[in-house]
Each structure stands twice: as C-alpha cells, then as structure tokens.
Amino acid sequence: MSNPFEGLRPALEVMAREGEILPATGQAIEDLMRPDQEEGYDRVRLGLDSDTILDLVIEAPNRELYIDTPAITRDEKHYFRYFLDGSARTFYLGNVVEGERQTPIHVAQIGVASVVRDERGRMKVARAEHKFVLLLNKSELSFGQAVEDAIVAAGPRYEFVDLKEEDQQTDGVNAGKEPRSRAAHKANWRMRVLEGDIARTLSRGPDEWLVLDGGLGSEYVKDWPEGKDYLGVVKSSWKELKFCVKGGRVKQTINTYQLLAGLKTGQRTIAFGLRDGALATWYVRIRGPEHLEFPMMGVLRVELPNPSREAVPSDLINEISGALVAERQATPHGKDVRWHAHLYAIYLAEQAVKNGFVSTEVLKVGMRWPTRIAMA
C-alpha cells in the first residue's frame, strides 16, 4: 500500500529543515471537539443570539401551531433522492519553532459523500471525495509560503489552511479562538465548503430533492440563491431559540422546550422565517417522546431555502414533513447515539465518508517527521 500522505511530506521536510520541530508524543494525537459542538455550529449558522425572538410566520395559509403530517412513503411520492453528509478528523502533529515564534501543526482528513436512492429503495454512492489538509499559522513562519507551495504542488487531494484566516463558522465558536482547538473547527469548515461544492455538482432531475445533514447557513443562502429542491435537517439543534406564537387572542413568547413539549409523533410546528425570510424553519417529530430518554429526542429541525422571501405554501411544508416522517422506518438504532433523530440515508452517507478515511495507525506511520539525516 502506498503512503496516502506522501503529498504532505515535502511540506514536512520544509518545516523540519527550516525550523525546530517539537513532535507530538506518539507522532499524532487526534483533536476532538466537545460532544455538544453540533449545537454550537447550529447557533453560528442560524446567525442569532439568545435574545432573538422568531416572530415571522413564513407559511400560508396555515396559522396553527401544530399540524398533523402523516407519513408519505416513497410509493406515494418519492420526494428525497439524494442525501449528503461530511466528516472531519483532525490530528495534532506537534509544533514548529522559529526563533521566538511558533505554531501548532495539524493534519486533517475531510470527506464528503452523497448517496442516491432509486425507485426500488436501493442506495448507492453518487459521489464521494476525500482530502488531506495541513493546518498551521502561516504568518508565524518566514517559510510559511514555502510550506503552502509544497502542498499546492502535491495536487488537488491535498489542501493548505492558514489557522489565522477567518471563516463563517470557526470564529463564531468560543473554542475556535484557541490555537489548538481552532484547527478542528477550521477542518470542519473546510468540510462544509467541500459539501457545498459537491452538492452543486450533483446531476439531479426535476423534483429529485437533496437532503443535507445540518443547517444550511449563510453559505447556502448567499452563494446558492436559487433554492432548488434541497433542504437541511438538523439533528442537534440549538436549544435557546425563542418563538412568538398566538395564544388565544394574544401573542406570547415561548422557548424551544415549551414549543416541542406539545409536539406529537407525526406532527410539525408552524414554520418561521430566518434571515429575513430567506430560510423557512420548522420542527418535525419523527419519534417519541414516549419511550425516549429525553422529550427533545426524536425531533428534526428543517431548513428550507426561500429566496423569494414570500410565504411558503403550507401544503409544500406538509408534504416535506410527511416524507421526513416516513424516513424513520429504517433506523441506525445501536449504530449511532443520535439514532432517534437520524435519517438512515444520511447515516449511509456518513458511513461512506468514514469508510474512505485511512486509519489512525496508518496516519501515524505515514506522517513520521523526516530526520535531517534522511533529508541530507
């Protein structure tokens, strides 16, 4: 087996030759993000703070808070054909020191896969792509540009990321401001960018909907404005949202817990507008709350692009919700702790990504620091 990290070795040689390397014990240590980080990303993508109250009802003609949405199976209407997910794994390699300056060095594996479902329900990978990413603070090294040039020369499978560059996600997360933890968040952002690139290139026919894992964020609203038959589903939603709803003759403000307490299986909530109506969002309960550990489990938050900013037809939201309820019939129970709100097709896309990653053992062998003798 050839070394999959061979394209990174010239960059490592530049750092080993020009600076002093303080390697990580055991050659590479995986950087892990906190378990609730998905909720943190959801908050950033929403572009809201804890004081924001969602009061824009973005659907018509419905004005009920809860709406029954019976399952719509693919025999009735095959709504969702493509499902897309991505993953990122980041490893700390050590620090490179030059005089009084230094930077941590990280390498990440990022991957994105889309699966497609045919009329008989059979799934196959439509497209998958994996990349290796080297991350460091370029401005801290006089030879930072030489490191980047070495990565660029290695080809499209490899990427260089400057840890100090800002992006739409990392800088909105508190942990993203710390030098060591920032790398994992930057890699996750690069994965999001790759997701968008692949989503745009899928050859979808009319009415072949694409389901993306996670919230859409401004990158889909601003950079992909057509809003053509795709949506995002959020398994780990930010819990601090507040909503202005009609209670009798007066309006009242309720929080997410209050909103979802009355949501029954096979129901959705009314849809609210995000980003001045450019996105419609609502909740769908696909399981529970009976027999689940927590009342918030079994709920998806859906984001639908709405470039016109006009009211979205309630019938369309009902159909989308019913199709999502039907997706609960196959579940990755026992395979994923988020099974209660996980769509099986998204789970398959996730597995397609992870199956394309090289193991930690291979990474540790392939990413050995070059010695000065070997470079001589």
Observed structural traits:
376 residues, alpha/beta, 3-stranded mixed sheet
| CA gyration radius, whole angstroms | 23 Å
Taking pLDDT < 50 over at least 5 consecutive residues as the criterion, the unreliable ranges are none
Biggest sheet details: 11 strands, mixed
Structural class: alpha/beta
What is the H/E string?
HEEHEEEEEEHEHEHEEEHEEEEEHHHH
Average pLDDT works out at 86
Helix content: 25-40%
Structure annotation, total helices: 10
Number of domains: 1
How many strand segments? Answer: 18
End-to-end span in angstroms? Answer: 26 Å
Strand content: 25-35%
Structure description:
There is one protein chain. Helix content is 27%, strand content 30%. The protein has 376 residues and is of the alpha/beta class. The protein has one domain (6-371). The strands form four sheets. Strands 1, 2, 6, 7, 8, 9, 10, 11, 15, 16 and 17 form an eleven-stranded mixed sheet that branches. Strand 15 (272-274) and strand 16 form a beta hairpin. Helix 1 packs antiparallel against helix 3. The longest helix is centred in the middle third of the chain and has 23 residues, at 179-201. The mean pLDDT is 86.
